[in-house]
Specification:
heterotrimer, A mainly alpha, B mainly alpha, C mainly alpha, B: mainly alpha, elongated, C: mainly alpha, two-stranded antiparallel sheet, 4 strands, 4% strand, globular
Amino acid sequence: MELEHLITTVTFLPLATGLLLLATGVIANALGGSGLPPSLWRTVGFGSTGVTFLLSLGFFRRFDPTDTGYQFVEYTKWIPDYGVHYHVGIDGISLLLVLLTTFLMPVVLLASWKDVQKSEKSYVFFMLFLETGMLGAFVSLNLFQFYVFWELMLVPMYFIIGIWGGPRRVYAAVKFFLFTMVGSLLMLVAMLVVYSLFQQQTGILTFDLVSPPGGGPALLDTVVPLGGPGVAWWQTQYWLFAAFALAFAIKVPMVPLHTWLPDAHVEAPTAGSVVLAGVLLKMGTYGFLRFALPLFPAALPDWTPTIIILSVVGIIYGSLVAMVQDDIKKLVAYSSVAHLGFVMLGMFALNVQGVNGSVLQMVNHGLSTGALFLLVGMLYERRHTRQIADFGGVAKPMPVYAFFFGLVTMSSIGLPMLNGFVGEFLILVGSFLSHPWATVFATSGVVLAAAYMLWMFRRVLFGPVEHAENRKLIDLDWRERGVLLAMVIPIVWIGVYPDPFLRRIEPSVSALLQDMQARAELATAAPPRPEAVAIAVGEQP
Amino acid sequence: MIPIDHVITLSAILFAIGIAGVVTRRNMIVILMSIELMLNAVNLAFVGFNRLWPGGGAGAHYDGQVFVLMVITVAAAEVSVGLGIVISMFRNRDSVDIDDVSLLKW
Amino acid sequence: MSERANDLLRWIPLLPLLGAVFHGVMIGIIRRSTPRWGVIAISCGTVGLSFVLSSVAFVALVGIPGDATVLVDRVYTWIGAGIGASRFTADLAFRVDPLSATMILVVTGVGFLIHVYSIGYMDDDHRDDRGFQRFFCYLNLFTFSMLMLVLGDNLVLMFLGWEGVGLCSYLLIGFWYADRWNAYCGAKAFIVNRIGDFGFLIGIFLIYTALVDAGVPAGVGFAEIASHFGAIADMTVATPWGSEWLLVDLIGLCLFLGAVGKSAQIPLYVWLPDAMAGPTPVSALIHAATMVTAGVYMVCRLSFLYAAAPVASAVIAWTGAVTALFAATIAITQSDIKKVLAYSTVSQLGYMFLAAGCGGFTGAIFHLVTHAFFKALLFLAAGAVILAMHHEQNIEKMGGLRRRIPMTHLVFLVGVVAISGFPPFSGFFSKDEILATTLASHLPGHAVLYAIGLFTAGITAFYMWRLYFKVFYGESHAPADLLDHVKDPDPVVVNPLLVLAFLSATGGMLGIPQIYGDPFGIEHMHSLNNFLSPVWPAAEPHGVAHATEIMLTLVAVAVALLGAGLAYQLYVRHPAWPGRLAQRLSGAYALLRDKYYVDELYDAVIVRPLVKFSDVVLFRTIDAGLIDGVAVNGTARGVRALASGGLRRLQSGLAQGYVVSMLVGTAALLWYWLR
């Protein structure tokens, strides 16, 4: 099959399906019918996400682990006068994230098959829209294009939380939207500064992060100064990194910018929470790895201590606060803060083991926390409450549920043989090489994770059945078992045999780290003369 | 010849009376009259300056006076529209007090 | 033959895993019930087969000539990251050397016997077939994890088994989960274990980082660490308070923290007594014979490290000794038959660590093996007593049972004699070796350690015979209608007991000290020592003079007799004395009976303050109050106030107001431009 436009197909298929359904419905309506039934929307939507996933498996199979660059690259000039181009590609880091996205969407649609009662058609449409937005952000190699997709993702998410959410959904949706947007605006400013710096140094206007196929200018070649005469403060690596980091740190989320997450999770519908935890949070960490670190590597010695401290604080703080929650979803939300603290810790260890573990843990967290939210959703569907105090002894009427819940809990706390351990362990090993003391504190998070998860598990599933309503709970049906099985199989697979995944991540990661090292040295050397840089980029002197 | 200072002074005084009227009076019709007064003050200034600097010889021009004609026309149009609005206002509110139509208030 | 044996190694842990997976899928996903005989066949069959394979591996191992006795089975690379020398790899590889061969025989052998015993013991759950299957699922999973722990070729695999047994412990302690107390005890075990695991992980990281710093290939496999150990043996670390420590000491201590958690030593022993909430076979298998011995195994596996880490070894020995004494003192006041045995286990584990700390790794493993035999025996026999007494566990309500349950009585007696250390039963030989090693070692204060060990041996004899007498002798304190139904359990329960009794009685033959063989001219009397000594070349052989050895033996036996005799006096001859003694020394008695209030201390000093802090300070004040309240919502409120309070009022709707603003603005602009 043709590889030429695989990325474009995979990225835009969901949205195209949504628009097609919309158009068909409008036409059907105009011709005197009543539009398309919601079940058709659901089926076609699910089918489209399923096809997208199957197509994306092609990425996995045809990915060349020995090639450290971008693969499946597509490039078209979009607005040449301003250097905005359609430039997409996948490397080892984004490969697994793309797969995670395409995998989670059909699972989520299947899981929420009966969940949504009102405006089902809009719901499916927004989900499809969201998938395109997320995929686009992961594969974009042009900064402007990335920003477009980044902001684009917010819109359907806002609606999903705001329409189909819980009692405080409007507050949560607005909070989510504004919080993320504030960071993004600063990032936009920083992007424009880099853009203008590049233009000053080479005379070319481009937003491309890396060279397009066939050679060409790339923003990664900008020599962003560290400081010095004639350089404004807002042009230095230090502050530009800060601007990018702020946008991504809000998304991760890092303490103290995390408070949008518990509200968004609690108020969002189940499917929304799964996608939010599974994919959207990874945008932040991915952004760090793809943009903030490569563009401003010389700012890292100044910023790494702060970020490491915030990560460790996130781990411990997130775990401690999770321990005192009454709402299961809020507990899991805070556990996400803790887990992503680990991811950031591994990333800023800046060695192969740590970053490898970090990328793998992004995927692991998506699977295990996504599965947790699915499980909570199934319980909520039956009892319409998420308060821990309303449960107890649920394992008796729902043993299959207890089995899956137990397995996913163990994955979440990093039990070996399951996926969480592999990522967590690599992160800690890598992090210990760079920051031993921080790692010691972070490892205590392992104990705390066991504490709060087992506490919750015990209170919900073990013990006597206290409330009469819990006695009559119906166990999982085959659709629900299928959904959970789909999540559990990769959880076990990655835990037992992570090599195929690690093998694909590693070359890109080590190339990235080496690249960063080289560019950091370049920046700390003598301030560049514009002509010299122009020659380096391949222009005629 | 009338000294240009006199013309400017008279024009300024009339303009100031017009502004004072616009800003202070509450009756819509009086406000319109004050606007007319401001416009006429400006007309006076135009004519006065045209008389001061007419050009002379082959370059003689009457731009100021021509402009006055344009101002008068525009004033007439504006006043008719304004009076139309006042009548509409009166029909709705039974009043020509400008404080009664602060509907775009917060 | 060796090649075939190599490939078979992976099946030793894999078979029980397959059993567990089968049960798990049937119960957890498909919900189709399996007939009882099917469950038994799969569970006992897989463990039995593992035992057979372990024996085959053992035979193959013995058949390897020379000193390099090891079989390795490498399956694939599990976790690998990095390039070059600092590459971190953890392969899925299994290693059988004399140490692990001993362990797998114990685990699969004793495990198999306990599986068989459980068929009868868990029969109670007839109404719920899946309870039966669930139990065996967890038992199989546990066996798998324990085998991974001892067979793992590197520290990460060992950690896998380490955590796995912790998980199974959690599941099995809280097996009857409908009772909230059971679930709590299970969680307590898991979390306290995890505190130890924290130390274990730091130890692994330290080893890896040290190897990277030394520039040698940094694998965490045991063979690799041992071969490159010289490069890191001399490295030092600067502590925050200014002194300099040997790196290997630090590593040893961190790893030992893991052992403290897993093997229930001070201060992380608190989970073990509460673990008695689980079914008795669980207590026998996990909390006597296998899981709790994992810490001892780990120390012995890294013997080369501890031999080079004097501070760590001293800490181990002292912790072991103090724990042994501490737990023994608590055991003398307990009324629950299983709690006595639980504290006894903590105490005996202390002995094993005492030996390991003094460099007597063989002694530690010897005691591990004999303890597995007689403690499993005691627990299972106690289980038989409990079953016979219809789930009564309080020994104050028992008495005079020796005629009603003769088989149980007999095996229990064998166990008591073994643990007290009377020759020629197994406990005598192993305990004796430990005491001899302690006296002969070069640790600071080793004489004191010996005294503690000796004294504890006396107390051990005392509380065990107290237990025996209270249950089987004297007058019965049970209600009459209960007594009519008291009888020995079924053969399926009794037969494993008989096997274990035999092993407890004769197991000492493995480690008869050389001095008994010399008069007869027999070389290599101590077969276990000969078998195991190639594993720890770094350990110095600690010998005592023959005369001293015989003296020590006599002293030990005398002390044991003293303890037993005291128990006889107090609980058979003068049954009123214990009560009066307890009243006289009521303060001390309460202290011991209430376990020195350690649980309450932990709760008040650590658990409650932490939860309170998290709730009040972190969640309410900082998160909801400061971040959300002030920063986020506060900003929103501020913007709103600015807009509605201030800016909004500019829209007055009064046209003349607008005119005035225009005039003022125009005037200002003109002034600015024309000045």
